[in-house]
């Protein structure tokens, strides 16, 4: 049996997650020893006509073209992995869903807004079936490797469904709330090893919310910091706005 | 056993001596008036006037991630059970945390014994340190009678006017005292100072909640259906902070971590929390503590009632960490007060 | 940091070889497992083992064969998720890891000399099968034996051949019911609890043992009590999330007990006291 | 010679983002030479409106994964200018260090992984692994070193965590500075064979004189993080007047806006910086330029890759110097900031406008914010280097195609791809900019 054919694709995103893969350093060579990398537009000109055993797709769907591309990739892939917040939950691209699309277009392109048609931002699983999720903006290299291992072993990868706080406590950080600022750790699903808090910043919720967050409880906590309602909503929705529409 | 004393000016030398023997861990300051146990090489790096560290010393007895087995499935299910240990001196452990370690000792030495814990524990030298006042308003060690030393250490230091009175409780402690050559015999004057300290503590460490130790389990039994739990459930974010920081919470999950080639790997255990929704979920998606309030109640009962039935002791040390860490401001003392009020 | 190899840690596995796999339904497979060096598992009916696949994990599975059959033991596994699906991929000859047996099983000693009423719902038949075959192999030690079995439909009924055999035996009263009947179904239709009133029994001489999904218990117990069976004569097997099997990891804790060590089989008198146990 | 050529490269590879190259020659006459930008727009300017200025860095960093640190720095500069905050000297020093690492990292990626395969006649760095295994390992090691320094400094290179408005949320201690120093010393060593590798490459010969735009200053520092905007045609403006430099306009085949100044187009990037500021480079970098035969002014856009390597030497040396200075002085840990969305009011806020102008790997980057007295963003504008280069790339294509018409179609296509790649375009970045007032004039 040959090594599995692996390909990387990107839709609308910053391509930071592919860079995280490229940045694995020499571990990348170990990975390349296990798989047959057949397509990776950002760093390769090769292309592949056959089926993909594993397709990693980054970025969100923001227009009809990208929707079509995604469907084609899905059809040609045995396993589809959504990686990066844009792909798994819509991510920062989703913020525009809370505004009028026409306003958004004219803010940036003036009266030429309709030269570049767009749709609401959607995560991949809102359009096609997704087999694995690697959350995060950007993805954490360790989790990428973990998911790759699961995919190669044919096992599901269970995204932690507890809060970032758990890892934050494992790392014994001084809590941001004790430092007088608010943090989305308590409602955000773990898996990043509390990356941001380890580096002195707050969690922005890039991995999406745990499946059953106590949203009212969390808003209550945020309110006690004298933040206006808009700021609180903005904070909670920086990454999660595209998922909101899916709940509707 | 016996006692000795050490002059304050010799303490730095003692720490250097300990650090020359093996890794020494003590309380070091972080930002915002918080502390953690971390490796030190001198007294100057430590803050002996600390309040409870973010994580209790349990992280040295049962680390956040701990290898149980190493495996290799290249030829079937092959494995080797392993313990990762290192010789360690824990310096400056407060009485509440000593009590916490004792709780863990009880659990892990209960049959079937947990060898991983037991072996690691035997590699740790424990040096306790007495508090003369409450750490802060969250602490409630007085209620749980953990403000006084109750064993569980090799050496125990009580700070007096210009020396520390040192209680030597084990052979290991005794040989430390002898080898260091820094201790002196106890003199009557110093013994008197210790008595004065303990007397003063009696006044300071009054129970923060008007309930007697032996009545606490019954309170929880009688308030199982209380509305107080419902109210906590509305506030709780289920982040699990309270369990991770608790010196007597020991629940864990077991996971496999394969290496990239998928054949070799480790089976590890990782701290888990009864506050997480999936903690008690079984196949068919039935969960026995689906509601937040139910999980909250379970946690409190696991501190104050269930262990009394099983291990004949309360599993709250009074360190106050859970209240200190909770961003939803769920407070242990307030909760007990509210339960008492409601019961009338 | 030093790594010391240890033995008898409780987490080590025995390497069990799968001698035979029988597909019972689309969801359930039966595994016959042999331990190395002809070792006997030496379990009690109602106990469970932790089955392990390195790289995937572990899951508690009831032993569904009787301890009287000593050369191997059997597990009936339903595909429920990550681990059980991986287990379903295995072939005869493959190895699995085995820890255990764990827990307190069915009350074999109190049952002896008494009439026995066995009630199984769904997959609950798996652990009970161990007890049933144990009783069959020691038949004269027990009084009258009634077996009540409930399943979703005839398709999901497990151990079909064996059921027919039990049905045929004159020293067992066997009775089953399905929730939804296919057109060709001849037997009872309706909830399992509906079978209880029809059983003739001497309540003071009967010990009832039930095993099934948690929702079933409250109704079953109601019916048994209506029959006049004393609370202390009722035993239930409780399923909880389990990880270590050693009474440490906390997942299976109900009040002050650990299901994995103190259970999974409990007397109803105790269960009744504990809010939320069933 | 009258021939027809039709080049249609869909989804240009080994560039960041999505673009097509379209060239149409009819009877030997060039009809069309376009770099189509088909990246779906992401509307960052619109997303920023109504949000706290303290979130701007986090959001705009997500414009581009490759230049995330550059965006962060430009965003922070604009934000701090807008609210009237002055960073400390230590902060500025650390930011310079970060910018050096960003430029190094991006240039190495471009030189080894994106540009070198063309020059060595393979399709990708995977192809390089056969004959140039050592070079691939070295490239990965050098990239890893940049990442490791960034990990220590700001938590990660892609979307840095700890550099925020006000300073740094985490500061390196001596142990970490030592670790950075070690990595940079290794970097210095690895640059030597890199220079040898590039010296041996043959770059296409092609010249087109154009206007070059970059930061300029009156002191002796090679300006990257501060300065005025200058051009080789003698324009000089303060950064707040960047719009008079960029003069952006829309074209239908690109979701990225184009720009022009004194001529029909201008260029930014490593070569522009080199042309304007070569005399301010670190001596080691000057020596590298000499070895590689690069001297200012240079009008061959293919040599942008060479200018990048010269800058690598500069950045590595400067970064090392900063780290060594910090080691000597010690980092003042009390300067650590805790900001969040400023709910603790640790930074005073006022209404105002601020512009950030930073030399990021691909050229000069502008962020421009207007905030109200609560620090809420009213207007935002970002002008990205690649956008500024697009018109110039097309002008190059217009000159290049007739010169190489004698070649085979595949060769023409490859030459065009190489030309575009030489600019190291960052297309995801380039599709977010500007406001209404500039459109369609
Ligand atoms: C004492 C006991 C005896 C059992 N006997 C059998 C048996 O004979 N045959 C059989 O098929 N199953 C039995 N089970 C259930 C079996 O353990 C679970 O179905 C199995 O653990 C699911 O693992 P998974 O990895 O496939 O599922 P996952 O992918 O982990 O999850 C699927 C579902 O199973 C639940 N689950 C996960 N782990 C456990 C666990 N340790 N215990 C219970 N539920 C869990 C999850 O909450 C989820 O709802 C028994 C359980 C217990 C506690
Ligand atoms: S800093 Fe954030 S993630 Fe960490 S414990 Fe506090 S709230 Fe949770
Ligand atoms: S801490 Fe929060 S924002 Fe940061 S990486 Fe983790 S989930 Fe994302
Ligand atoms: S319950 Fe709270 S106060 Fe008690 S020991 Fe645990 S953390 Fe400390």
Low-confidence stretches of chain B: none
Helix count of chain C equals: 7
Round the Cα radius of gyration of chain C to an integer and report it.
19 Å
Q: What is the typical, i.e. mean, pLDDT of chain B?
A: 93
Number of beta-strand segments of chain B: 13
- What do the pLDDT scores of chain C average to? 91
Tell me the name of the CATH class of the largest domain in chain C.
Alpha Beta
Beta-strand portion of chain C reads 25-35%
- Sequence stretches where pLDDT stays below 50 over 5 or more residues of chain C: none
- Second rung of CATH, namely the architecture of the largest domain in chain C: 3-Layer(aba) Sandwich
What is the SS-derived class of chain C? alpha/beta
Pick out its properties.
heterotetramer, A: 248 residues, alpha/beta, Rossmann fold, 2 domains, five-stranded parallel beta sheet, 11 helices, 36% helix, 11% strand, C: 278 residues, Elongation Factor Tu (Ef-tu), domain 3, seven-stranded mixed beta sheet, six-stranded antiparallel beta sheet, 16 strands, binds flavin-adenine dinucleotide, binds iron/sulfur cluster
Question: Your description of this structure?
Answer:
The complex is a heterotetramer of chains A (248), B (344), C (278) and D (441). Chain A has helices at residues 16-22, 27-34, 64-76, 85-89, 101-109, 141-153, 164-170, 195-198, 215-223, 229-236, 241-247, and strands at 5-10, 36-40, 52-58, 77-83, 132-134. With 248 residues, chain A is α/β, with parallel strands linked by helices. Chain B has 344 residues and is α+β, with helices and mostly antiparallel strands. The mean pLDDT of chain B is 93. In chain B, the strands form 3 sheets. In chain B, strands 1-9-8-7-6-2-3 form a 7-stranded mixed sheet, with helices on both faces. Chain B has a 4-stranded antiparallel sheet with strand order 5-4-11-10, covered by helices on one side. In chain B, strands 12-13 form a two-stranded antiparallel sheet. Chain B has helices at residues 11-21, 58-61, 95-109, 115-122, 171-180, 188-204, 216-222, 227-235, 241-245, 292-304, 306-311, 321-325, 332-343, and strands spanning 2-7, 23-29, 35-40, 65-72, 78-85, 88-93, 124-129, 155-159, 163-168, 252-258, 264-271, 281-282, 286-287. Chain B has 2 domains: 2-65 and 84-204, no CATH class; 213-343, no CATH class. Chain D folds into 2 domains: 5-40 and 395-438; 44-389, Orthogonal Bundle (Cytochrome-c3 Hydrogenase, chain B), CATH 1.10.645. Chain D is 45% helix and 15% strand. Classes of the chains: A alpha/beta (248), B alpha+beta (344), C alpha/beta (278), D alpha+beta (441). Chains A and D meet through helix 1, helix 2, helix 5, helix 8 and helix 10 of A and helix 1, helix 4 and helix 6 of D. Strand 5 of chain B pairs antiparallel with strand 1 of chain C, so a sheet runs across the interface. The complex binds flavin-adenine dinucleotide and iron/sulfur cluster (3 copies). Flavin-adenine dinucleotide sits between chains C (48, 59-62, 76-78, 80-84, 123, 126, 239-242, 264) and B (278, 281-283, 285).
